[in-house]
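Practice problem: predict the structure.
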Amino acid sequence: SLLTVVQAAFAAGITWAIAWADQAYPPPLDRAAVASREVLDGDGALLRAFTTQDSKWRLAVKAADVDPQFIRMLVAYEDQRFAEHRGIDLWAIGRAGWQIMTHGRIVSGGSTLSMQVARLIEPREGRSFSSKFLQMARAVQIERRLSKAQILDLYLNLAPYGGNLEGVRSASLAYFGK
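Answer:
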């Protein structure tokens, strides 16, 4: 029927527009690759680290090198459906919206780990619907380009831990000496 053809054309147009925007405005993933320079001894132990150009302590780490219990707790607290969604968790956003309406304030957020990575690689001034919408679009772009393991690696390297500490490895070394 004509309605089906119009719906298919509309869906194709939306798909094309998303693909075009994704290629025209890629997420700035290069910021995520910047880590502190490290001096290691012959056995690979850290002797000295240097801050990044933006004065951050950001020691590179992979999720495979982090305690699995920490990873499980991180995902359980920050993004329970991390393995299932494609960057946006509509249930979490709906829950957060409902809580705002019923409590009159933010009780819990709806950001996924992918959305948080998007915010960390491309910080915005203030909290607005437009910045949240861009964060969601960037999260979808990140999910299209990277695996869940790579997204988790980015989060573990970029998450703030106070002052100029970024990433779980920098925080572990600064706070626990390990």
